[in-house]
Amino acid sequence: MRRLNTFLVIGIILSFLFHAVSGSIRLFGADAGYPKTAAMLCIALVVLHVVITAVLTAKTLKAMRKSGKGYFRENKLFWTRRISGAALLIPLVMHLLVFSGTGGETYRLVFFHSGRLTAQILLIACLALHLLTNIRPLLIGMGVRSRSLLSADICFVLSVVLLLCCCAFCVYYIRWMEF
Q: N or C: which terminus of the chain carries fewer CB neighbours within 10 A?
């Protein structure tokens, strides 16, 4: 199950990168023929990832209860990963609600006010925390031996993409405020 989760996470990251870059280009005002399949694939993979992670977490809790030892202090990073993933679900749902309005061939959104901008920036912050705390276990799951250099490269690419998304949301907000 952990191996399947590793492949799901790789798929989530790749589809997210494509979705984030093409969506940002669209929010900047360039209509680059945005394919919805990347977003739908990403959501499907996220749902499977959440289910598998919930099952693995339940097994961990069961083992902790059976042994009588929680070792919470020693497992803070483990719980940070789980809690950040759960916290990510709230702004993710808000993102889906804001950016799911279509009318035929024309892409339509409801008014993009300060609250929606805040929710999107919260999504980016939660996503950054969740990704950065989970890169090392992902590389371990992939069997990568020299993790430090590759981990830094992945962090850099993800940081650039998340910054691009944040800028795109802000530009989009400013464009809405002009009307």
A: C
